[in-house]
Write a structure and sequence with these properties.
Elements lengths: L14 H12 L5 H15 L12 H12 L10 H18 L5 H15 L6 H14 L6 H15 L10 H10 L4 H17 L3 H14 L5 H16 L13 H4 L5 H11 L2 H10 L3 H4 L4 H18 L5 E3 H8 L6 H10 L3 E6 L4 E7 L6 H34 L7
């Protein structure tokens, strides 16, 4: 369910008529006596005393009447889904027409509506998602209430295992954060809510993506940021599908924990190989267990990254199995298995040859792109340029020879 759906208000008429419509919906299934007693205060409040401004011109009276209605909204009511959605859309319309999006009263109303909606029965969950989405869309783009509404929507959908129904995209999240007039701490909290929701649904890769954004938003000098940075490093190391560690070194909070034991391990996954990993483990005997890190999985990751770095040096050439075996500290007979794994992980692209006992590398991912990688790229571009020049010479010579063999036109 995309939150970009338009918001419809299912009511027409004057303010007085719309208030009467809301009140009549609330008391729809009550007895005649109960309805009469309930409606009477609203009828009295709708009357304009002699000498007073008409209701349509009296904002304060309108606000009081809206408050009288709002405090009586204690359930979704007895109506079809269309009627229920229309009832709440009309409430939201009056809320934002009578109160500033920045006002304290508005926040109280919005929070009350949210609490009512998130405690509905699971059988009403799709309707609840729609109403919350309508509230989100009815709220001004820059309003600090928007993250509160969407966080409620996330938590409700996650509790029902329906997070995918929201169709959350990174592009939308980035856009919202740039629009919302809220402090960095609240932006960070919103990102943590998204990450936690994906984690609860075991969508670990998406959870990690938003966890990284969350830590990036934190002030690097805070204790919270440093604790969360360590947690982020552990998550990145733990997840079997995360191989790109370079972005972590661009996060201030991560750099601020450079003296932490996990930071030195992270550096190995960015720049080094299995010997350095084994040396680190020897000097930090209890750290893997402390952070729930699996030794075999970490060794697999560092081997795949080592193979990717080696393959990066052989793009366009054949990488001998013997070189791979030496770098990964495995038998030559095991190399094909590791080559298949690194290709499946989309770190290397190429073709295996049992006949030549080599991997012809067509493309490879660099763990980091610094001076060494730029130099390697420059060499490949120069070789490519030289190759193109050779092809061009062949074409020119072929055209020249073809021209010599043609009869000249008569003058």
């Amino acid at each position: 369910m995309a939150v970009t759906d338009s918001v419809s208000v299912f009511a027409e008429g004057t303010f007085e008529e719309q208030i009467q419509e809301l009140v009549n919906y609330i008391v729809r299934n009550r007895s005649e006596d109960e309805r009469a007693a309930f409606i009477r205060p609203f009828q009295d409040a709708l009357k304009t005393p002699e000498g007073k401004k008409p209701l349509e011109e009296d904002v304060e009276r309108k606000r009081n009447l809206f408050q009288m209605v709002a405090v009586e909204v204690k359930s979704l009511g007895d109506g079809s889904e269309k009627e229920i959605e229309g009832f709440f859309n009309l409430l939201f319309s009056h809320l934002y027409s009578l109160h500033s999006a920045e006002g304290s009263d508005t926040k109280v109303y919005v929070n009350a509506f949210i609490q009512l909606l998130i405690h509905q029965a699971p059988t009403q969950k799709i309707l609840t998602y729609r109403i919350l989405s309508n509230l989100f869309n009815a709220t001004e783009r820059t309003s600090p209430l928007r993250p509160m509404v969407y966080s409620a929507l996330i938590q409700t959908a996650s509790a029902n295992g329906d997070l995918e129904a929201l169709q959350i995209t990174r592009a939308n999240v980035d856009k919202w954060l740039s629009e919302w007039n809220i402090p960095q701490t609240e932006k960070a909290s919103f990102l943590k809510t998204i990450s936690g929701a994906y984690e609860a649904e075991s969508q670990t890769e998406k959870a990690y993506e938003y966890e990284r954004l969350y830590v990036q938003t934190l002030s690097s000098t805070s204790t919270t940021a440093q604790d969360e940075a360590v947690s982020l490093i552990a998550t990145a190391l733990r997840l079997p599908t995360v191989f790109d560690f370079d972005p972590l070194f661009k996060i201030d909070a991560v750099v601020s924990v450079k003296d932490h034991e996990l930071y030195s391990l992270l550096q190995i996954f960015l720049n080094h190989g299995l010997p350095e990993f084994k040396a680190w483990e020897t000097s930090h005997p209890n750290v893997l267990a402390k952070y729930n890190l699996d030794r075999a999985q970490l060794q697999r990751k560092v081997r795949l990254l080592t193979l990717a770095s080696l393959a990066f040096q052989y793009v366009g050439r054949d990488l001998p199995y013997s070189k791979v075996a030496e770098a990964l500290q495995v038998e030559v007979a095991e190399v094909e298995k590791w080559a298949i794994d690194v290709i499946r992980a989309q770190l290397v692209w190429g073709k295996l040859s049992q006949m030549t006992q080599s991997l012809h590398v067509t493309r490879a991912t660099a763990r980091t792109f610094e001076k060494q990688q730029w130099e390697a790229l420059e060499k490949r571009l120069l070789a490519w340029k030289s190759g193109l020049s050779g092809v061009l010479d062949v074409v020119v010579n072929a055209k020249r020879q073809a021209g010599l063999g043609q009869p000249q036109n008569a003058a």
